[in-house]
From TrEMBL, chains A, B:
Needed co-factor(s): Zn(2+)
EC supergroup of this enzyme: hydrolase
Name of this protein: Metal-dependent carboxypeptidase
UniProt-listed Pfam families: Peptidase_M32 (PF02074)
Binding sites annotated in the UniProt record for Zn(2+): H266, H270, E296
Entry-linked InterPro entries: Peptidase_M32_Taq (IPR001333)
Length: 503, 503
């Protein structure tokens, strides 16, 4: 019979092994998207299968079940990290074990096929081709929710998997407020605003110059180049291998400096989060971001709250002009207004920050209706197009620019989209709290070192990894629950300036 | 009860899984030596431990033992690939299982420590510091040979692990001949030869130009850039992840173009080997080079036989001059003579091709004596220094340039060194056979595409992977056993020209 101390030691060793396999798998993912030669990809999928399979097997293994059963009665005797690790392991175990194995296998095969079919359907602008697959995926998801169980709303169960403790009740309220505010602001901008002139941004900037400029910003932000890398890829991402190795990627367009510069600032925010997770969480399942929404709050904090602020460009615009003098033809204010133009668009990932939440709300409402049986996949495309017309005043003419634009549903990721908008609201709330603590954030941004900002974020958010739940972090840091008012105030303030609105 | 067909299927699936883990591990190794940020390395060693541990556990598992026991009686019913895979798995199983587990663990710990101590001792030029570790390693190796068993010479057992079926009997004879020939040639060069003037090589060439020049050569050689990469590192190497992803690395010295150019040609030879292994061997333990010696024969074939030949430079020297006009101050023949200067040196990895085999023979003789109990580690440094004086006419003054220069013994790799010299002899033998088949190799080298050479190597060597034993490849390809005469003839011919020897 093992003692609790021995059990704990073995449990942590088990998690550490799982963590090492995850690190290897993440390296494989990174390599596939940055370095792998064309002919290496086919063989590498076998490696992904084996490593992902091993991780999954560990998560649902009898060994894991035995740890959970043996340690659960002794929770009070365990330190916090072991306690929370046990809770997390238990959550994942339950999630997977509640689905009958043959159904899970059928579902796994379905989504693997569906992602390929989705890509074909998108290329052909043919929703009908993808429809039967999505219909099956939704049917599985509805059934899974029954297995997993739910309280108020079936969709809550899915939300919770990406954003623990988030609910339809909360989201309906905050999204309602946010939507109203955005629509009002957009109306005012259309009626009374002056659209900025974007012609001053039509400057070619070489990849090397964009890179030099972005790296200098990353350094000021506190990205540790001894604990990370920056590479190029097709679809940019950040990935943490271990806390001393968090890699970001970008894509350069010499005709549009915004893509790489803001992309790097965004991915840098993700990476700085992981570089600063507490070392006491190494090797556990807690050495990650608290949730998708909190992770996104860090990237958006740097990209949108800081990186798109006038204060930020006051200090960085001269450096941009130094790198590429052609930018110097316009004034700082003209430049700043130009980079913050907002307009309706069909494609989420190209949207500006004022219209972006509307793209998310559309998806949220459709997902919620699908999962609750209030909408069927056969009616999805019409519903999508109607919502774009209602919220953004434009209607997709091609499926590829409409319902087929995102891969998420093909991968079965229902409940994921809201995280993007949550991240934005969290970020605005954090910024409010930070301003109270730091007093003069503008002075920090005028300096060559943004350490006070990074340190504040580490103190309140980064260090905890998954030790705290998202709403716990929010409460501890801001004293509030989810509150869209901060984002609304920021958007109003920003666009009043950008669009020269009368008061 | 499983049928033979079912057993075979399960056995191959088991090997495929092991192969996938090895691929992941090789990616980790590649990344550590090319891309990993400084602070990522510590965490990554955990990943290596887990993956290497899993591979080892599979190799000595009860599952593997069961496959071997169940399939061995049905060998005749199996196809060749499964048969040879079974033999290889069985060989590795026996190798590991014959050592008592606690001794193997003690040994593993010892070599891990010894490699660190060796690095310190080398930095401090202090053999005494390393001596107790090496003494223990040799004691283990002597004991292991008893467990593994041996026929004629104890050292044969170790040789066989790197170069199957190679023996002391064969090596003593061919090394004897080769040594005599080299010493005679060196004497002749010293007495009658004209040492080339190397001053024409003192040209700075930028990394970008060296890279462009080398990549063009790699392409002509047949290196498939869609199935590989070229990166920079500190200690260059080639590594195969899968047959569609074989990566090479190099180091650039702008003051010495030879380092990167010849290094890339060398590693390119290794990589072209693996890129052309038969697709029928994917996922098995046979999808590798036949042996260390055969692998080295491919790199040396390209580096030494082709890449250091006059015919090669006849066509490539103009391209070098085009990239870097300063090389054009000397004639092709002066250039060719200069890159082939030979002189005694203390450090193996910096040696030219004429003296290189002497460095190997010294190590071979010392290893053989150590394993057979004819030499003790306490007397090793003196023996080493004496042999350098006898064979090369120079005596190391520092351990770091003498007995401590190579890591091999610290890692327990006794029996490995001869492979380097074997590779050179194999390469010369292959060249002889190739010339008979292709008739005009010089014309191929004058062209922009060396396909006929690559195809010949693939037909006779590459495609077989580990399906054939080294001496089997040699026999099938050249009709001979190991024969140093071809290398001797090549060295004589080359150095007679380079040193303008009278006949």
């Amino acid at each position: 019979m093992e003692t609790v101390a021995e059990l704990k030691r073995d449990f942590l060793a088990f998690l550490k092994k799982k963590s090492a396999l995850q690190e290897a798998l993440n390296l494989v993912y990174w390599d596939i998207r940055t370095k792998i030669p064309k002919k290496g990809a086919e063989g590498r999928s076998e490696v992904i299968g084996v490593l992902a399979g091993q991780i999954f097997e560990m998560e649902v293994s009898e060994e894991m079940a035995a740890f959970i059963a043996a340690l659960a009665p002794h929770k009070a005797e365990l330190d916090e990290v072991t306690q929370k690790s046990l809770e997390e392991s238990s959550r994942v175990y339950e999630l997977n074990k509640k689905i009958p194995q043959e159904e899970f296998q059928a579902y796994s095969k379905l989504v693997a096929d569906a992602e390929n079919i989705w890509a074909e359907a998108r290329a052909e602008d043919n929703f009908a081709k993808f429809e039967p697959y999505l219909t099956e995926i939704v049917a599985f998801k509805r059934k899974f929710v029954e297995y997993w169980g739910y309280k108020d709303n079936k969709y809550d169960t899915l939300l919770d998997q990406y954003e623990p403790e988030m609910t339809v009740e909360i989201l309906d309220e905050v999204f309602g407020k946010l939507r109203t505010a955005i629509l009002e602001l957009r109306e005012k901008m259309a009626k009374e605003g002056t659209r900025p002139d974007a012609s001053g941004l039509a400057v070619r900037m070489s990849e090397a110059k964009q890179r030099a400029f972005s790296e200098a910003i990353l350094t000021k932000m506190g990205f540790d180049f001894e604990a990370g890398r920056l590479d190029t890829t097709v679809h940019p991402f950040a990935i943490g291998l271990n806390l001393g190795d968090v890699r970001i990627t970008t894509r350069y367009d010499e005709a549009n400096f915004k893509m790489a510069v803001f992309g790097i600032i965004h991915e840098g925010g993700h990476a700085i989060y992981e570089q600063n997770i507490g070392r006491n969480l190494i090797g556990t399942s807690l050495k990650e971001g608290a949730s998708m929404g909190i992770h996104e709050s860090q990237s958006l904090f740097y990209e949108i709250i800081l990186g798109s602020s006038l204060a930020f460009w006051k200090s960085n615009y001269p450096d941009l002009v130094k790198q590429e003098p052609a930018f110097g033809k316009i004034s700082l204010e003209e430049f700043y207004r130009a980079i913050n133009i907002s307009e309706s668009s069909l494609v989420r990932i190209e949207a500006d920050i004022l219209t972006y939440p509307l793209h998310i709300m559309i998806r949220y409402e459709l997902e919620k209706a699908l999962i609750n049986g209030e909408l069927e996949v056969k009616d999805l495309e019409a519903a999508w197009n109607d919502k774009y017309e209602a919220y953004l005043g434009i209607r997709p003419e091609k499926s590829s620019e409409g319902v087929l634009q995102d891969i998420h549903w093909a991968g079965g990721d229902f409940g994921y989209f809201p995280s993007y908008a949550l991240g934005l609201m969290y970020a605005a709330q954090f910024f409010d709290a930070m301003q109270k603590d730091l007093k003069d954030v503008e002075a920090v941004l005028a300096s060559e070192d943004y350490s006070p900002i990074r340190e504040w974020l580490t103190e309140h958010i980064h260090q905890y990894g998954k030790l705290k739940k998202p709403l716990e972090i929010l409460k501890d840091t801001t004293g509030e629950g989810l509150n869209p008012d901060h984002l609304i105030a920021l958007l109003n303030q920003r666009y009043e300036f950008v669009y020269k609105l009368k008061n």
